[in-house]
Amino acid sequence: MMTSEGNYDDTYTSFAINGHPVHIREIDGLTDDHEKCRNIVVHFGDDRDDPCVTLRRMSMGEFHARLKDELNEPIKSFSKRDADPHIAERSGVCPAPTKALYAKRAGMLSVYVGEEKGLVWGTKVRYLSPAERAKFELTVDNSGLLHIADGKLFDTTRSGGAIFVMDHDGRIFASCNEIVGKFHHSSFLAGAPVAGAGTLEVVNGRLKRVTRNSGHYRPTVGQHQQVVDRFRRLGAGAFISSTEV
């Protein structure tokens, strides 16, 4: 159950959400298509300079309406673990679809915008089409083992690890072949926002370790926990020895 109590000044509205202090303010912003919109910035804790979360395309009125909606999980589930120290560095992120399985998404850092055109690394980073992306999707069998698209067990022993991303529908894409300036975390979803990203250690299909190490996306702890939740729901969590935060 979420409760809120108001305490207002000219700039912020302060609340207690599930017993934690939260400060919100409304700002002007732009969508990914460069259209004007209203955004809500959420600060957690007593220090309003703390890292924050931005709710894009949402006005103060809509935020208050959602506070009263006990069924709105994306708002209800906000906590300090979603604080984003890289919020000002991101290229922007549109809200996840209403029926998204995982609504907390990270936009790519703006420093990498244009990398597919050769504007960042001096070489063009490969951005996958939906058909190409499917070849990198991981699946989990009834024994909790990870497989690549051709049905073989996924294994990162030779490469020392794999990079991965998860989309808002919980689909996970991975590769053992990260190449600087050519293939990165951003390659899987063609630079689009992710619900999680990092590295995997997998031995004979058994997921041993999952991290949130991604220079392109810098996921929050909350987004990392979405990934761990997804693997466990798929049945691959039994072998995990580390979910390094």
- Averaged pLDDT, please? 79
Q: From N to C, what is the helix and strand string?
A: EEEEEHHHEEEEHEEH
How do the strands line up in the largest sheet?
A: 1-2-3-4-5
C-alpha-based Rg, rounded: 19 Å
How many separate domains make up the residues? 2
Uncertain residue ranges = 1-10, 68-76
Question: Pairing-aware structural class of the strands and helices?
Answer: alpha+beta
Shape assignment:
globular
Major beta-sheet overview = 5 strands, antiparallel
Number of strand elements: 11
Helix content: 10-25%
Estimate what percentage of residues fall within beta strands: 15-25%
> Count of helical segments?
5
Q: Report how far the terminal alpha carbons are from each other.
A: 27 Å
What are the main properties of this structure?
about 240 residues, alpha+beta, disordered N terminus, 5-stranded antiparallel β-sheet, 5 helices, 4-stranded antiparallel β-sheet, about 15% helix, 11 strands
Would you summarize the structure shown here?
The protein is an alpha+beta fold. The protein is built from 5 helices and 11 strands, in the order E-E-E-E-E-H-H-H-E-E-E-E-H-E-E-H.
Explain this structure:
It is built from 5 helices and 11 strands, in the order E-E-E-E-E-H-H-H-E-E-E-E-H-E-E-H. With 245 residues, the chain is an alpha+beta fold. A hairpin with a 2-residue loop joins strand 2 and strand 3. The protein has 2 domains: 77 residues; 129 residues, no CATH class. The radius of gyration is 19 Å and the shape is globular. The N terminus is likely disordered.
